[in-house]
Design a protein that fits this description.
The complex is a heterodimer of chains A (about 425) and B (about 450).
Chain A (H helix, E strand, L loop, with lengths): L5 E3 L2 E3 L3 E3 L8 H10 L3 E8 L9 E6 L2 E8 L8 H14 L4 E7 L4 H13 L4 E5 L13 H4 L2 H14 L4 E4 L8 H9 L4 E4 L3 E3 L21 E4 L4 H13 L8 E4 L5 H9 L2 E6 L1 H6 L4 H15 L27 E5 L9 H9 L4 E4 L6 E4 L9 H5 L6 E5 L9 H6 L8
Parallel strand pairs in A: 3-4, 3-14, 4-7, 7-8, 8-9, 9-10, 10-13, 13-14
Antiparallel strand pairs in A: 1-2, 5-6, 6-12, 11-12, 15-18, 16-17
Chain B lengths: L8 H7 L10 H10 L7 H4 L7 H9 L3 H11 L3 H7 L6 H4 L12 H14 L14 E5 L3 H12 L3 E6 L7 H4 L8 H12 L4 E5 L9 H7 L2 E4 L5 E2 L12 E3 H11 L9 E5 L3 H12 L4 E5 L11 H9 L3 E3 L2 E9 L2 E15 L5 E13 L2 E4 L3 E2 L2 H6 L4 E2 L2 E2 L12 E3 L2 H4 L4 H18 L11
Helix pairs in contact in B: 2-4, 4-5, 4-8, 5-8, 6-8, 9-18, 13-14, 14-15
Classes of the chains: A alpha/beta (about 425), B alpha/beta (about 450).
Chain lengths: ~425, ~450
């Protein structure tokens, strides 16, 4: 049985799963239930300026019968009094000393406010601080949240202030609402942040009600841009994470990965791309704390299967395999192959290839079942048919190298090799 | 003893309630609709005689385009609502569903089709519009599936259609010849009303060809005639005792159930049903549901060769019907003019016949069933006399017509059971479409009617 114990800059947790700063971590009752369920840690919902919330606050994107493929919120930071939050944090730390207690902060935009808030939170017994530079709604208008994270120089200044006061590890949380997360990440690292976390939510409009013509969520006849998260954002988060774990400056600090993590597989992927811990919110908001059981068991079984005994054995393992397009091997070539024994004759591969790819699938009409075969000489190995096929293992991509040697685009050009082979 | 009124009102209600109830909620329909893979050149569509674009209508349910979904179905099959209830889908669309090849449950195409069409029919959505009148008029004989389907296509193209129907209601076999737990008489009425709500279709009830009408006169008075009068005469057993009291034919039995009300229809304590087709099953199961204590289906071949589907057989079995394979009626005996026994020859399977089915051969042994009622469901025969009297080329009373429904008489077209000898409702609907296409061509009305294969 592998060991899931996580040491994030000395913040220890029995597993790498933390609850992200959000409604599930905004009060003692939730956090104690989470710890009882087995969560490794929490990032307490952001403390700071006084706010007032509206309703409704959430909306979602459903897809072909699956609810909440993407989730959107316009809720602000904690709207509970600071002293109650601090008292409850202290109680949670006392009752579950082995769990990570990180507190998210968003102070008013001046040095003293930050210093004062940090002192109070440290006094409550928090193990770490997470700076909320990412909240994309409500706070930005006051020059906070994403307004800080979107400007590397403002971020640098705030991290400077924080590092003057902090005695416990500081994690700077990055906003994805930028063309690249790296400049703000670098600024934060250069200003001394001990770690980074990403991503925060992505600005979004989840949809428009076709009866009322009002976008979601509807707040008394109006809506506003919200923060998008959930399974739909995972690929974007993985990309942004990788830009941080590959950058020479930002890769020096550990990262807590966030963005659509719903299963142990998602977590393993974030960790393979360099996350030391992972944070979960939407999956808990839709299914409750009980999902921690399979998050741990699944990761554990996978680690055993792969021969990993500690999470450090695989953290970052996939980072070097993501490269520039120019480095890819042009001689590597695959073609699709359809297993006739498994084919159910649905024709999905055919119509996708015919209408949207390279017309590489042959159709022989039958009644009622057509036969589909790959025209290997036409197939560019794009993978579309394989992705669409509803039968596991029916279409496989078979390697048929164009040449024995590794050949990248630069070398290809240098040799003046012919283009347009399709 | 043969008697009626055997059950309470609640029992009748329960016994004849919908065997394939619709999805109760939109969510329930969506769960099923979302399973559909949206196949290309889909096997389900190819297996539907009317070629309903099944993946498209299911996708339209998913996108909350129920109106579009109903239109997709009804534009291929104007009786798509009724077919969703009575089609033997296990050998048509659902039987071809690719999920069968994955050892998964086929998509419930019929229930989804019912979901999409139900509101359209009940709320009379005007999904179709007539083109301006052409001034042409066509007579249709029979307001069954073939005739209604033909009439609807013609009327859409601006033809004025008069349907002559010998019964007092439209729908034909759908209204008079199918188990009531599959499709209610009330729905049949709604479906006919929906079809005629297009306008341009007049139904004259109680008007029978050969009795109140002559084909010659119709040919004179109309620009073209479509014959869709079906089949209807029960095949006789030609055995001793067939005229005893208690011997009835299944067509009549089902007709009475559907037209007179359940409590009025008499049924025996111990009933034998001869045959193993859909009509035999419908008669046997409904005999049970009317309160018969024992129902035995007698069939001269084996399960391998039976004309009904496995699903139908299962309905009979779960209704508690007994099945005697490899037995054919030899004699019905009686006492005091009433049925007391059915004597059967025990058969064995011999060589394959022209249809590829193995023919039953007499073993010389017999089997006797104590029964007080015998229902004959050994097939239906065409209205030969009518067909011959009108001088139509025919084969054993079945009108000879090409695939488009063109008969030997100029301007006379035919389709459905009166041509094919008795197939499914959905086949008749398609024959009606073909007939309409041929009529439009004959009348030089330029249209683009889907002349699917």
């Amino acid at each position: 049985m592998a060991n899931l114990h996580t040491d994030f800059l000395g913040i220890h947790s029995p597993n790498p799963y933390w609850l992200a700063s959000a409604p599930p971590t905004d009060k003692k009752i939730n956090v104690l239930r989470a710890f009882e369920a087995g969560w490794g840690g929490v990032v307490w919902k952001t403390l700071g300026s006084q706010v007032k919330n509206v309703s409704s606050r959430y909306s979602a994107v459903d897809y072909e019968g699956s609810r909440v493929m993407g989730f959107n919120n316009i809720e602000l930071i904690s709207d509970r009094p600071l002293d109650i939050n601090l008292k409850e944090i202290a109680e949670c730390v006392r009752l579950f000393p082995d769990r990570a207690m990180v507190v998210s902060l968003m102070a008013d935009n001046d040095r003293n406010s930050w210093h004062e808030l940090i002192k109070q939170v440290e006094d409550a017994g928090a193990h770490g601080l997470e700076l909320n530079f990412g909240c994309p709604h409500g706070m930005t208008e006051r020059g906070m949240g994403a307004a800080v994270g979107q400007d590397p120089e403002i971020a640098r200044m705030v991290v400077d202030w924080v590092m003057e006061a902090a005695h416990i590890p500081v994690i700077t949380k990055l906003t994805p609402n930028v063309h690249s997360v790296v400049p703000t990440g670098r600024a934060a690292v250069e200003a001394g942040t001990n770690a980074l976390s990403l991503i925060n939510t992505i600005q979004s409009v989840t949809g428009v009600d076709l009866d009322t013509f009002i976008p979601n969520p509807n707040v008394g006849g109006k809506s506003t841009f919200g923060g998008y998260c959930g399974p739909a954002v995972k690929p974007i988060a993985l990309k942004m994470l990788t830009t941080i774990t590959q950058d020479p400056v930002t890769s020096k600090v550990p990262v807590s990965g966030i963005g659509g993590i719903s299963t142990w597989k998602d977590a393993a992927e974030f960790m393979l791309l360099g996350a030391t811990s992972v944070q979960v919110c939407t999956a808990v908001m839709t299914h409750g704390f009980r999902i921690i059981e399979d998050l741990c068991e699944g990761l554990n079984n996978w680690m055993d299967e792969k021969g990993f005994t500690r999470i450090e054995d695989f953290i970052g393992k996939s980072v070097p395999t993501l490269t520039q397009w120019e480095e890819l091997d042009i001689n590597y070539h695959v073609v699709a192959r359809i297993d006739p024994a498994k084919c159910i004759h649905c024709g999905l591969c055919y119509i996708a290839c015919e209408d949207a790819s390279h017309q590489s699938i042959r159709l022989d009409y039958g009644n009622p079942y057509n036969t589909y075969t790959i025209k290997e000489e036409e197939c560019v190995g794009c993978n579309l048919c394989n992705l669409i096929c509803p039968v596991d293992g029916c279409i496989t991509m078979v390697e048929q190298r164009k040449g024995a040697e590794y050949l990248n685009w630069r070398e290809f050009q240098r040799r003046g090799l012919p283009l347009n082979d399709h | 003893m043969i008697s009626n009124n055997r059950l309470t009102a609640e029992e009748y209600e329960q016994n004849f309630s919908d065997i394939h109830p619709p999805f109760e909620t939109r969510d329930a329909a969506l769960v099923e609709a979302n399973r559909c893979l949206f196949c290309y050149d889909a096997p389900c569509t190819k297996s539907c005689p009317t070629h309903i674009d099944v993946p498209k209508f299911i996708k339209q349910i998913v996108t909350d385009n129920i109106r579009g979904s109903a239109h997709t179905i009804l534009s291929s099959n104007i009786m798509g609502g009724g077919c969703a209830r009575v089609c033997p889908v296990e050998k048509l669309c659902e039987g071809a569903c690719v999920y069968n090849l994955m050892e998964e449950e086929a998509i419930s195409i019929a229930r989804l089709q019912r979901h999409a069409t139900e509101r359209a029919i009940r709320e009379k959505w005007p999904l179709f519009r007539r083109k301006p009148a052409t001034g042409k008029k066509v007579a249709v004989i029979g307001a069954g599936p073939a005739g209604l389907s033909c009439a609807h296509v013609l009327s859409r193209e601006g033809i004025d259609v008069t349907i002559f129907e010998k019964e007092s209601k439209g729908g034909g076999l759908m209204t008079y010849g199918i188990a009531a737990y599959k499709v209610t008489p009330q729905f049949c009425q709604e479906e006919v009303d929906y079809i005629t709500s297009l306008g341009g279709i007049q139904i004259e009830y109680g008007r029978e060809l050969g009795r109140h009408l002559s084909l010659d006169a119709l040919r004179r008075d109309f620009d073209a005639v479509f014959l869709g009068f079906g089949v209807g005469l029960a095949r006789q057993l030609e055995i001793p005792g067939e005229s005893l009291e208690g011997v009835v034919d299944a067509i009549r039995f089902i007709y009475d159930i559907r037209s007179k009300g359940y409590p009025t229809v008499p049924v025996g304590d111990k009933v034998a049903v001869i045959g193993m087709g859909m009509t035999a099953i419908d008669a046997a199961t409904q005999a049970r549901r009317l309160g018969a204590k024992e129902v035995t289906l007698v069939y001269r071949r084996t399960q391998e060769e039976m004309p009904c589907t496995e699903v139908e057989l299962d309905i009979a079995k779960s209704d508690g019907c007994r099945i005697v394979w490899l037995a054919t009626p030899k004699e019905i005996t009686g006492s005091g003019g009433k049925v007391t026994q059915l004597v059967c020859r025990i058969m064995e399977l011999g060589d394959r016949d022209a249809s590829g089915r193995r023919s039953p051969a007499d073993t010389g042994q017999t089997l006797t069933l104590d029964v007080d009622m015998v229902i004959k469901a050994a097939g239906q025969i065409p209205y030969s006399a009518l067909v011959q009297a009108d001088g139509l080329a025919n084969t054993n009373g079945r009108i000879s017509a090409d695939k488009q429904g063109v008969t030997s008489l100029a301007g006379v077209f035919a389709g459905g059971d009166c041509v094919n000898g008795g197939k499914e409702v959905v086949d008749a609907v398609q024959a009606g479409k073909h007939g309409a296409a041929a009529i439009l061509q004959y009348l030089n009305v330029p249209v683009n009617v889907p002349a699917s294969s």
